[in-house]
Amino acid sequence: MIIGFVLDYILSYFFNIYPLFTILSIIFMKSKNKYFITLIIGFLYDITFTNTLFLNAIIFYLILIFNNNYFKNHKFNLLNILKISISYIIFYRITIFLILSIYQVIDFNIYRLLFIIMFSLINIIYVIFRYLYIKYE
Amino acid sequence: MKKISMLILISISILLLMFLNNYRNLTLIESYIKDTITFTGNLINKPLVFFKDNLNDIENKKDLYKKYNKLKENYDNLLLEYNKYKVVKNELNNLKNNVDIKDTLIDYNIIHAYVINRNIDYFHDIITINKGSNSKIKKGMLVINSKGLIGVITNTTNNTSTVSLLTNYKKKISISIGSLVGFVYDYKDGYLLAEVDNNKIEDKIVYTTGFEGNIKGIKIGEVKKEKLNKFELAKIIYIKPYVDFNNIDYVMVIGRIDI
Fold it and tell me: What is the mean pLDDT of residues A18-25?
């Protein structure tokens, strides 16, 4: 997750893309303290990238809980990982968009949201590499 | 159980309401954490920035002789303009002394800075620069580059400042077009929307007015379209900003000399 965070920092500086590596790293979290780490990284993510407080921390935590339940009943294979990654990207983008729209931080523009979701899906490449790395390590 | 859930939901909503404001002052803890992360991030980025700068240098060195000749021509013209500027500035200083005016809306200090972090979601349209309150940067100062106005400082830490770009700045910015005065209130499809009096627009270039404690005469953009508002009492104008918001590296923060 820390690697994802650093990659997000570097990529957001150099390229005009929408990296979500930190969030997608949650899928691969196996540490004992994963709940605590997720909250801390979410908090740092809030301060560094989005100028908010607790918002990403809460979303990351919810994603982690869902992730744990999902992989209790499903196999940890590429297909399931891809399915879950796409769901997380869409969930994260829509949740952030709705919350920020409700609190009038951003304007409600559905086309903008769809555009961002479309471009965010490129993050799946990171998930594939990560899965292959773990598999053939 | 329902009551507890409701209580949690209300608490979270209040918390979010408190902290989902781009214009709030950062707490001391947030400020220190942000400084530390951006410092570490800068160290990691340094080799990559060096590589990127070198690539840009190679690109810039193409057609060097042609560029030199063009710049030489511009330099001669600028020299003439500079001499004129010096005369006018002297005259202005004399007039200011005569009527005992200490500061005007066009006197400002410049603080050079560069972008160290861009906000990940473009929902927020925010950048972070490498100078903060230690460099006398304050909330509300204007941020420009060589082309024009980029945004406004929304909060500062000791060594960084957060800049809200014009594309997402939610407060009104006072502008002037020739003799007309109005304010920018929104950004849509690449245009800044502004409301001005229902008079003929003589000039096309839009400047800041210097109201709200800012600097007068900073270029914002050019008027591309205009239409009457729904009550037909004022005009809504569409301003194309000079700045390319996707390509901002080096910036200048400007503040009044008295600041």
Answer: 87
Between A12, A58, A103, which is nearest B118 by CB?
A12
CA distance B21 to B72: 48
| Burial bucket for residue B116 (CB in 10 Å: 0-12, 13-18, 19+) | buried
**Chain B closest-CA separation from residue A75 CA (Å):** 31
Q: Check whether A27 has a pLDDT greater than 70.
A: yes
Interface size between A and B, measured as CB pairs under 8 A: 89
B121 chain-A contacts, CB cut-off 8 A: 18, 49-50, 96, 116
Q: Which of B187, B197, B249 is nearest to B220 (CA)?
A: B187
pLDDT tens figures, B129-178: 989 888 889 888 899 988 889 999 988 888 889 898 888 777 788 898 88
Q: Label residue B91 exposed, middle or buried (CB < 10 Å: 0-12, 13-18, 19+).
A: exposed
B206 touches B218 (CB < 8 A): no
CB contact under 8 A, B120 and A96: no
Complex ipTM more than 0.85, yes or no: no
The whole-model pTM stands at 0.76
